[in-house]
Specification:
The first copy, chain A, has helices at 57-61, 128-132, 137-149, 166-177, 189-198, 212-219, 233-240, 272-275, 292-304, 321-330, and strands at 12-18, 31-37, 46-55, 82-90, 100-103, 110-113, 120-122, 157-161, 181-186, 203-206, 224-229, 243-251, 279-282, 312-316, 336-340. Chain A has 343 residues and is α/β, with parallel strands linked by helices. The two termini of chain A are 26 Å apart. The interface between A and B is medium-sized, with 33 and 33 residues.
């Protein structure tokens, strides 16, 4: 059902495009906000006006050269990120004007979406921000990483890093639901307080102030059965040194190294995987997308019974996108970082 | 059935005991060969006269301080190693004089053995050397690491390091039996030639002469599904960089680092485990001991049908034990290193 041309908006489309590969933290002049015309639609395409963009550490990894699990963003391309918006024009049978869709629009006002793997329609009336956190790839990563990859069992000790972040905060709460001892690792006393007092973690280690090794020994007296790793670096190494027999490390990301210009050393304690018969397994939430409707319903039930809180940290305006992304790395955020582009 | 005291041998027992913790390669004066009386037997004990001792890289790891999967050998204790010998006196209902047993006697002429996890009787007429290689913990490690941990499937690409060593040579041959493309990594042109021409590997990379990354790209055009790691270090790192989607790394040991006095950096490429949805898992062959009778029969059938060759590299005399152990690290051996203590 091609759109009546009268309904195709015309006018400017602000886009944040990559100008050079960042060295370290993304700098304002690594990108440029350009204004282009709203694109015309080819057959099978629809136009989405972004309302909320979701910031994930992996967005920064896509800006580095080289093959990852998705192709790197090329110079001149819009910075890829997830987002939710309204379909405002359509040349695709999959979408009608007014639909709400979740996709990878990138940092821009208007994006072309297709009926593809990365795009899904949301029911009318959906509250948008949670669709980027607990009901989005973040919630999927937390669930799959802890349950499928971490194979968590009741009574085990679970450690999660970036504990006050979007994923970590969900992981810890789900592990509590499973009857685990849950120890977070976070970067400020406020975040540690938040996950213990507000989210019910048993303890939280401040990796900037505490002696990691001593703190892990204190808070994980029976060692660590499952480690959900969002950060890599010294925290991963320290937890490997405290692994329990048959311990599992679910590698979700490595926020501590995405900004490094030289590849940092790997975890020297990896040989503990032999002594402890441990497993370290990487995963990508998107691989499990087909199971997401079912998992989302589980998460929804937990949110509704009050056992799972989700927190969003909102930045206002497309112009704040770089600052919002960097908040993940400077630790300025608590919960899911979203950018409100339009209402 | 206590032994008739007349049959208890008396006389000297040569023992190689640890004098100080080695720094790097085991030095002759890190140990001392002492001569003590043959010990008396308490209730439940039997005396084994060692005939062959088996050298494994893990023997060196037991000499380092700290908790491994077995306790460290203490200063003054005999250097722990596997071995096979004859029961020459018994105060245990589990053994009769004349029995042949496999145990962890350590580097000495006579050892006390018990009816325990580490000791098993062998059928009369057993050929001894293969019991330390293909029919011993070495064969078990090769089988379990490749089949259970590596979850190898027909048509996959398998890489194994220390390819001409006791374990690696078996792993590669078993993988060929499974219809895999098999690429070895070894330290000399002669070893590479041996595993390709004599054992049927598809290719072998000389890690001292070849550019590891380029060679892996050349010999593993479809990347690496299973990596059986005996060495750690730069080889592990390079193979992680060439991992296939869903690739598995079975961590058997890390011969390249056991002698290091400082913990070397871990594998910087571990993040490929995320991009490639890979798994790195450590294992200890002894954990699978209960399945060994069944696995040994499988290995025996393969030896008998000619598809599995085992190679032993024999050193003569207890006095050669340090040299024999070091051969594993200097790369002087091909196949299983055994020390003949007595006939």
């Amino acid at each position: 059902m091609p759109t009546d041309p009268a309904t195709v908006p015309s006018g400017p489309n602000r886009r944040i495009v990559l100008r050079r590969r960042p060295q370290g933290l993304l700098q304002a002049d690594d990108v440029e906000m350009v204004t282009e015309d709203i694109p015309e639609l080819a057959e099978g395409e629809a136009l989405m006006q972004a309302e909320l963009l979701g910031m994930d550490a992996t967005v920064r990894s896509w800006l580095n050269e080289g093959e990852g699990y998705l192709p790197a963003v090329e110079i001149g391309e819009v910075v890829r990120c997830s987002g939710i918006g309204r379909i405002v024009a359509t040349n695709s049978p999959a979408y009608e004007v007014g639909d709400i869709a979740y996709s990878l629009p990138g940092m821009q006002d208007y994006a072309i979406v297709r009926d593809d793997f990365f795009t899904s329609k949301l029911p009318p009336g959906t509250e948008l921000a949670p669709m980027l956190s607990v009901y989005g790839a973040t919630g999927l990563a937390a669930y799959v990483g802890l349950i499928d990859i971490g194979r968590v069992r009741e009574g085990e000790t679970v450690v999660v890093s970036a504990a006050a972040g979007a994923t970590g905060s969900l992981v810890g709460q789900i592990a509590k639901r499973y009857g685990c001892r849950v120890v977070g690792v976070a970067g400020t006393p406020e975040k540690c307080r938040f996950v213990v007092e507000e989210l019910g973690f048993d303890a939280c280690i401040d990796h900037r102030r505490d002696d990691l090794r001593a703190a892990l020994k204190e808070h994980c007296p029976k060692r660590v059965d499952v480690y959900f790793d969002n950060v890599g670096g010294p925290v991963l190494d320290a937890v490997l040194g405290r692994l329990a027999q048959g311990g599992r490390v679910a590698l979700c990301g490595a926020i501590s190294v995405y900004n490094d210009t030289h590849k940092p050393p790997g975890p020297a304690n990896y040989l503990e995987l032999i002594n402890r018969r441990g497993t370290m397994q990487g995963f990508i939430a998107l691989d499990h997308w087909d199971r997401f409707p079912e998992i989302r319903e589980t998460l929804r039930a937990w949110v509704e019974d009050g056992s799972l809180r989700h927190v969003e940290h909102t930045f206002e305006g497309l112009g704040s996108a770089v600052e919002a992304l960097n908040a993940l790395f400077t630790g300025a955020n608590t919960g899911k970082v979203v950018v409100r582009v339009a209402d």
